[in-house]
Amino acid sequence: GPLQRLPPGPNSLHVLTYLSHLIHKPHVALQKLSQIYGPLISFKLGDQLLVIASSPDAAKELLRIHDRVFSGRHLPTIYHNLPGNMHSSIVLSPECDESWKKLRSIAQNCMFSTKAIESNALIRKKKVMEVVDYLRIKQGEVVNVEELMFAALSNIVSSVLTSRNLFDIGGEGGNERRVKMEVMNAVIEKTLTFGLVDYLSILKGLDFWSKEKAMDIHRMIKLILWGDIIRARRSARRAGDGSSSGRDFLDVVVDDATFSDDQIGNLLLEILIGATDSTTITTVWLVVELVRNQEMLSRVREEITQTSVEEDELSESLLSKCHYFQACIKETLRLHVPAPLLVPHRAIESCKLNNYVIPKDSMVLVNAWAIARDPMYWDDATTFKPERFLNSNIGYRGTNYEYLPFGTGLRMCPGATMALKNIQMLAGSLVHYFDWTLPNGEDVTKMDMSEKYVTTLKKEKPLLLISRSRELNITV
Ligand code: HEM
């Protein structure tokens, strides 16, 4: 009846013409569909009903006003076969249940609170300085800067979680590094991919998500990433080793005694990926935008130098006073939204919305990418223009619905503050301490800007650059 209407959208034949586009660039395909059908659309993909918001108002309606109703997640199919998959998740927790609340609050205490962020400042600085030292040795050589950023950011998160590094930045363990990166990329592509593929019955026959694949990933987590760390920590805690003050995240979940080793391994991996993937992407695009816009780069450097007259080293408090640099970070997160469709939500019950009904178990997406590029809300929407944020009160808190890089509402990213600290320290150091050129003398203004969608939106080609130390501290 008229009271049970779904939001408008393409019929199944029309969806078919978008299929390849939906798989490879869903944020673009969904933007096109919303331009035809409006800011709130729905259609079926296989058996799954999708509901997509593509305007600030529609986003607010779904993720803020009705945030409890749309607070569920769909588990990627492969998760069904992953040992320890229950109650061991924040990002992918199917509901905001007791285990989600408990884990979010443990993470809050160890990582996200103001106090935790302050006490982890030294870790951030140390891991970034390892990169700076490494680059000083590698001057003049082509370096995969993206891999380096990823390793450094992983080390920051891993140190906060388990007090251990994951990657050896200076050492020659290139092979080990490659293997670990492959594990993480495999998991990002196979596990966290929200799997539009999951819902395409025509592709289901291909059985991407077999039991064997799940077991492969399970083995990789155990062997390569945390191997014996969890078990060792368990026996150390049992032996009464280590106090209860200064406990890291691993200590807390081990002491909790309700989590199995498998659960802890999955949880660590999920947080590690959630924390490093999008932060690396943002740092890459920020450095790319600055290197290809030399005027902006000079302005950032001048600002840092002027702000740092009293200190000879970069610090977080110094960088936070660099307003133009902060605006560059904001603009990067607008133009290159790392998670263009956020993390998909699920309706935990059916919900009336204006004149429409959104049925229970709908997959609910917000096209944050399309909203952040909508000329209705942004001048010169597809151009990188940091100045736009200089006199603006748009922030990261999810209260400006035209700007939602971290989402909003109940399941909003809890790691935003930590992410921003990591990004500013890492990117700030790279541009302050080094000059950058492209391999083979290529023109920086012609840098390849293609994107690749793998749940998050990455630079397609790896960021290869050559560094030279800048002459600093020259007093005039
Ligand atoms: C630039 C960096 C980052 C971006 C753009 C980002 C973005 C997001 C987005 C869009 C979501 C989903 C929001 C939704 O469901 O609507 C999310 C969730 C989450 N993020 Fe981040 N994030 C970043 C960094 C981090 C970091 C550094 C951490 C941890 C150290 C982190 C931990 C999480 C967690 C645990 C969730 C799941 C929240 C839940 O489902 O309850 N993120 N993030």
Characteristic key phrases:
476 residues; alpha+beta; 4-stranded mixed beta sheet; 3-stranded antiparallel beta sheet; 11 strands; binds protoporphyrin IX containing FE
Strand order of the largest sheet: 1-2-7-4
* Morphology call: globular
Coarse structural class: alpha+beta
Helix tally equals 19
Main sheet specs: 4 strands, mixed
Helix content: 40-55%
- List low-confidence stretches: 200-209
How would you sum up this structure, described in words?
With 476 residues, the protein is an alpha+beta fold. It is built from 19 helices and eleven strands. It has a four-stranded mixed beta sheet. A hairpin with a 2-residue loop joins β5 and β6. α7 packs parallel to α19. It starts with 11 loop residues before the first helix and ends in a 7-residue tail after the last strand. About 2% of the residues have low confidence. The site of protoporphyrin IX containing FE (HEM) has 26 residues, from α5, α14 and α19.
How is this fold's topology laid out?
Blueprint: H1 12-17, H2 19-24, H3 26-37, E1 40-45, E2 48-53, H4 56-65, H5 98-112, H6 114-119, H7 121-137, E3 142-144, H8 145-162, H9 174-192, H10 201-204, H11 211-225, H12 229-238, H13 249-256, H14 261-292, H15 294-307, H16 316-320, H17 323-335, E4 345-346, E5 351-353, E6 356-358, E7 363-366, H18 368-372, H19 416-433, E8 434-437, E9 451-454, E10 456-459, E11 464-469
Parallel strand pairs: 2-7
Antiparallel strand pairs: 1-2, 3-11, 4-7, 5-6, 8-11, 9-10
